[in-house]
Every structure is written in structure tokens, then in C-alpha cells.
Design the sequence.
């Protein structure tokens, strides 16, 4: 998103240049007062109670249009003056809405009723914050449904960008199945690992997170690779027999990445997977949360029958240029202006961005570009 407007300043709750690989170092970065706490990428979740106020106090330079990228709090920013606010929504904050009970179950015992009351207050804030957004763009039909249900707002759908050029499809592969995700409860990694154990097939896991300890303990036959480089990740994708996505995702970029590497996907048959995987052509679906169904698919499906080039062609529908074009066209539609050309085609468009506490920064178009 930020590369659509390379001169744009970026406003974000927290910024960790190392964690983002320095990819935003060419932008002017504005952070919230929480930045002074020195919290890094691994510790940002602990600040959850403080994000609503921090995002409302976040400095957002003068602009005509603010485009936020929000998986929780960024949509609650206060745009300057009468600026329009277009929010690209990855999901309404899951832990106060559709996964509230999971959040309660994961709270330490001492939190008790205090934790539930905190979630209630954040949910009330979240609903009121949604009313300040000019227009929502959802990353999938599932997110669009939730934006309507939780916020009472309609939204358009633009699928998120996938760096398909990082991957090269191959007809040659190893025998392992692959999971790539943060190791947190809602990713349902245990379903894939239990299924692989039941089917008697090897499985590898890329990622780390709070659930890593007990996943390693309960599934010792799985191979945990931790975090890997971009180059190693591409190789692990390309050598997999098939990719497994056991969670019901809002979209599921990892499934599209697997397709970019020419690999078929075994996915829970709900949510964003239905917008990526074409059953029988690029992968298969299994009943969500059903270990037996996933195990049967791992064991019985002829994974070699899928054509890597057909799979790769599907991934091209989610390329970065496609996303950028659709995003700019949608901003143009909402604002009733002409879309400014992408960098390299004419004068670059000045812009500003606002990031979520847990996602990459967002974009904006400033008055100076008009």
C-alpha cells in the first residue's frame, strides 16, 4: 500500500524498523506516544488496553484522504479536519467480536471479571470508532459480512496483495505437508498436526508464537522450523507436497503464496479459502475443525494430479499490481476523482498512511497532491 504513494508520511501506533526489514525507511514515520515504551514486535499484544486512546491521539498530518490498514485499532484514528477516511479492514478486532470467548478462555486466572469488562469497553469503543470511517474496504467476503454485522456498515471487497513473483512453481517436490502461520490458538495448527500424525505423513511448521511450546510437546513428530528467511520460505513452499490451512481465515495470504509456488492447498472449507482455492483444480476442502477429515484428505487425495501451472495462474489473480490498481480505483470511486498514476507512470502522488498496531502501514492521499 505504501509503495502506491512513495512520498507519503506514515502514522502508526508502533514502529519496529528491524521487524519490517527497513521497507518503510524512505517514508516519514509518525508513531504514537506508546513508542516511548520500547516495545518490540514480540511484545505489542501486552499494550492492548492502551491502543484505543493512543490511536485517537495519533498524529496524522494534514491530508485530504486517509487510508488506514486495520486489523484491530487503526480504523479508530481521528482524521485531520474534514479529511475522508477510507479503511482497508483485515478484520474487525476478533477478540472483542467473533472470538471474544476465546480471548476470555486465554486470560490468566487473576484477570477474572476485569478482563471481560475490558473487552466490553473496547467493543463499545470499536463500534463507535467505526462510525467515523467514511468508507470500508474489506479484504474478503467474510470480513465484509462481519463489518456489516458488527458495525452496521457496507463495504467493498478487494483481496489483499500477494508477492507472487517471490515464488517459482515446480513439478518436483518432497513428501511433507506444510503449515505457515503465527502459532496462536485461532490458527488451529493442532488440527493439521493431529491429522498428519493420524495419516502417517510428515509435516513441517514455519512460524513461532505463544502456542509453540505446547504444540512441540504434543506433536513431537512434526518438524518446527521457526521463523525463516524469505528465500528459505520460498524453498519450503516449493518443495512441499501440499499446503495445509486449518484455520477459518478472513482471507489466507499463505494459501495464495502456496499457489504462487505451484502447490495445492488443503484448507478448512469456510472463510477466505473459498475465495482462493478452486476445489479439484488448485486444492481441496475439509470440514473445519475435523481432524479425521483433514487426515483422510492427506492420505487419500492424489496430490500429484494437480497441475502446478494451473495453480500458479490462480495466484496471479492476487498479485501486488492487481491489488494496487483495484485499491486506487476504489479510492477514486469513493472520492469521485481521477486516480493518480502509479509511480513510474507520471508524477508520484503525495500521500500519507496510518498503520494498525499489528499490520503494515496504510496509505493516504494528501491535499498537496490535488
Sequence:
Amino acid at each position: 500500500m505504501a509503495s502506491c504513494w512513495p512520498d507519503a508520511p506514515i502514522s502508526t501506533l508502533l514502529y519496529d524498523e528491524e521487524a519490517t526489514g527497513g521497507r518503510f525507511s524512505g517514508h516519514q514515520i509518525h508513531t504514537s506516544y506508546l513508542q516511548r515504551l520500547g516495545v518490540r514486535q514480540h511484545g505489542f499484544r501486552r499494550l492492548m488496553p492502551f491502543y484505543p486512546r493512543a490511536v485517537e491521539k495519533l498524529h496524522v498530518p494534514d491530508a485530504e484522504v486517509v487510508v488506514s490498514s486495520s486489523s484491530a485499532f487503526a480504523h479508530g484514528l481521528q482524521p485531520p479536519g474534514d479529511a475522508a477516511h477510507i479503511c482497508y479492514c483485515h478484520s474487525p478486532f476478533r477478540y472483542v467480536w467473533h472470538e471474544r470467548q476465546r480471548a476470555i478462555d486465554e486470560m490468566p486466572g487473576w484477570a477474572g471479571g476485569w478482563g471481560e469488562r475490558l473487552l466490553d469497553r473496547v467493543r463499545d469503543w470499536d463500534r463507535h470508532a467505526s462510525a467515523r470511517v467514511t468508507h470500508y474496504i474489506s479484504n474478503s467476503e467474510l470480513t465484509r459480512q462481519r463489518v456489516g454485522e458488527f458495525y452496521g456498515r457496507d463495504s467493498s471487497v478487494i483481496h489483499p496483495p500477494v508477492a507472487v513473483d517471490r515464488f517459482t512453481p515446480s513439478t518436483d517436490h518432497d513428501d511433507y505437508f506444510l503449515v505457515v502461520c503465527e502459532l496462536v490458538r485461532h490458527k488451529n495448527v493442532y488440527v493439521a498436526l493431529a491429522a498428519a500424525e493420524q495419516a502417517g505423513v510428515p509435516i513441517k511448521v514455519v512460524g513461532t508464537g505463544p502456542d509453540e511450546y505446547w504444540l512441540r510437546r504434543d506433536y513431537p513428530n512434526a518438524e518446527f522450523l521457526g521463523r525463516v528467511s524469505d528465500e528459505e520460505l520460498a524453498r519450503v513452499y516449493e518443495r512441499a507436497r501440499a499446503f495445509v490451512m486449518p484455520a477459518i481465515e478472513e482471507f489466507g495470504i499463505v494459501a495464495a503464496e502456496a499457489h504462487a509456488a505451484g502447490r495445492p492447498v488443503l484448507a478448512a472449507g469456510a472463510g477466505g479459502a473459498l475465495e482462493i482455492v478452486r476445489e479439484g483444480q488448485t486444492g481441496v476442502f475439509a470440514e473445519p475443525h475435523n481432524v479425521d477429515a483433514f487426515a483422510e484428505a492427506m492420505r487419500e487425495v492424489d496430490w500429484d494430479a494437480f497441475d502446478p501451472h494451473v495453480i500458479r495462474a490462480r495466484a496471479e489473480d492476487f498479485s501486488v499490481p492487481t491489488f494496487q490498481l483495484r485499491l486506487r480505483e476504489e479510492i477514486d470511486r469513493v472520492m469521485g476523482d481521477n486516480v493518480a498514476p502509479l509511480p513510474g507512470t507520471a508524477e508520484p502522488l503525495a500521500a500519507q498512511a496510518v498503520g494498525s498496531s499489528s499490520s503494515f502501514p496504510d496509505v493516504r492521499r494528501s491535499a498537496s497532491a490535488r
Summary: Residues 112-130 form the longest helix (19 residues). Residues 338-353, 356-370 have pLDDT under 50 and may be disordered. The longest strand covers residues 65-70. Residues 2-161+319-369 form one domain.
